[in-house]
Amino acid sequence: MTRVLLVDDQALIRTGFSTILETEPGIEVVGQAANGDEGVRLALELEPDVVCMDVQMPVMDGIEATRRLTAAGSAASVLILTTFDRDDFLFETLRAGASGFLLKTAEAEELIEAVQVLGRGDALLAPQVTRRVISRFAAARPEPAPTAQADPLTERERETLLWLARGLSNAEIAVEMYVSAETVKSHVSSILMKLGLRDRINAVIWAYEQGLVSPGGH
C-alpha cells in the first residue's frame, strides 16, 4: 500500500487529488495539509511514502518544506505539483530533494502513475518540466564544468546517464539500449552509488553540471 500525504493550500485541489488517488487500489491518502509547515509536521508524524507538494503556499512554500523534510531524514518521496507559475524555482526544489515533478494539468492516470512510481522508490520528471529545468539550468550555467568526475562510470553507465538526462524512464532506456529494465535499474543504482547521489534526478543535474550533456544535445 502506497501511503500519500497531500500538501496544497487549495482545499478543492486537495479534495480532487484525494478522490482520484483513493479510487486506485493500493493507494491510501493518509493526510492533508494546507501549507508547507503543516505538511512537514504531518509528514514526519504520519511517515507517508509519497508527499504530493504544491510549490506556492502560505506560511511555508513547497521548496522550503521539501528542504526541511530532506534535512530531517524523511524517507518520503516528494512529488512537486506545479502550474509553472514559479518555474524559476524548479531547479532549487530539485536541489532541495524533490523526487518528481508533474503538471497540475496532468490527467488523472498520470497522477496515479506518478504516485506509484515514487512509491516504488523511483523518480519522475514530466518531459515538459525536464525541458524547462534544463533550459533554466543552461541559462544559469553557460560554461560546463570539467568532466573529470565522470571517470568512475563505465561506458554503459555513462550511456544510461545520457538517456536519463533526456528524461527517459527505465523502460524507455531499456528499449534504446536493447537491454532489460532490470539491467537499466542496476546501471542507475550503480551510477548513484559511485557518484554519491540521492536519486536519478540529481544524477541528471550532475550530468549537466559536468558538461556530459548540454540542453538540446545528446
Automatic annotation (TrEMBL):
It holds the Pfam family Response_reg. InterPro entries: CheY-like_superfamily, NreC/VraR/RcsB-like_REC, Sig_transdc_resp-reg_C-effctor, Sig_transdc_resp-reg_receiver, Tscrpt_reg_LuxR_C, WalR-like. The keyword Transcription regulation applies. Keywords: DNA-binding, Phosphoprotein, Transcription, Transcription regulation. The modification 4-aspartylphosphate is found at D54. Residues 146-211 form the HTH luxR-type domain. Residues 3-119 form the Response regulatory domain. One of its GO terms (biological process) is regulation of DNA-templated transcription. GO terms for molecular function: DNA binding. Gene3D superfamilies: 3.40.50.2300. It comes from the Bacteria. This is Two component transcriptional regulator, LuxR family. It comes from Tessaracoccus oleiagri. The lineage of its organism: Bacteria, Bacillati, Actinomycetota, Actinomycetes, Propionibacteriales.
